[in-house]
Structure formats: C-alpha cells, structure tokens
Design a protein that fits this description.
single chain, 145 residues, alpha/beta, D-tyrosyl-trna(Tyr) Deacylase, Chain: A, 39% strand
Length: 145
Amino acid sequence: MKGLIQRVSHAQVNVAGEAVGAIDKGILLLLGIEAQDTTDSADKLLHKVLNYRIFPDDKGRMNLNLQKAGGGLLIVSQFTLVAETDRGLRPSFSRGASPEYAEELYNYFVKSSKAQFTPVAAGIFAADMQVSLVNDGPVTFMLET
C-alpha cells in the first residue's frame, strides 16, 4: 500500500463540480492499493499517516504528528500511485489491486481512519475527482507498507 502525504493548509476534492470532502490544516493522503495489500497493510499505513511527524513544533522543527498539530485528514484514492514506470513510456498497472478489492480496502481504510481520528474527509472511490490543495512547505512524503 502506498500513501503520498502532503502537509496542507487547505485541501478539497470535488466530484461533478461539488465538494465531497475538504479540510483546512492537515494532511492530504493520496492512497494507492496494490494486489497484495491487506487490512494489515491498511492498518500499518494508517498508523504511519496519523503518527508521522511532519508538522512544526514551536522551534520550527518537524516534530509533531497530525494528532498533536491538530487539523484534518483528507483521503483520496489514486490508483496511479501503484504504476510501474521503470520501463517504456506508458505506465503499467499490473501491481494494482482489482477495482473491487481496492474499493473494499479503501472503504476499510476510510472507516478505520474515522474510528481513530477526527476530522476525516474522503473522496469517492473511482470517481473523476478534482483535487485542489495548498501544500504547506511544501512538505510531501511517500509512505509504503
């Protein structure tokens, strides 16, 4: 499972011109699900996302996690994160989970997030989404399980 996290001062996801999820300060998580991923993978990644220290403390050092810094979590499914790009000029998605399985794990991840943290917002799985954000820093990390 891959999660691209971005520290944001604002992020929003729209579907068909309507906002379906938005946060102010917090983390935008773009979530990629691979065929071998399990609920254990999801649990490990969620733990990392919620506890990864990417927010500044009073000295300006990245020492605070999302929970200590306050803010929200916006989760957006993004299957292109699991693309194989090392050969050729066209991405391969053979590592990706089937759409049905990916949706099941995505929904599990969102539900688990909401059970452990608030506020949590999310996009709509497999929808044509437009994501807007203000990356704070910029700070961006790829997390994998």
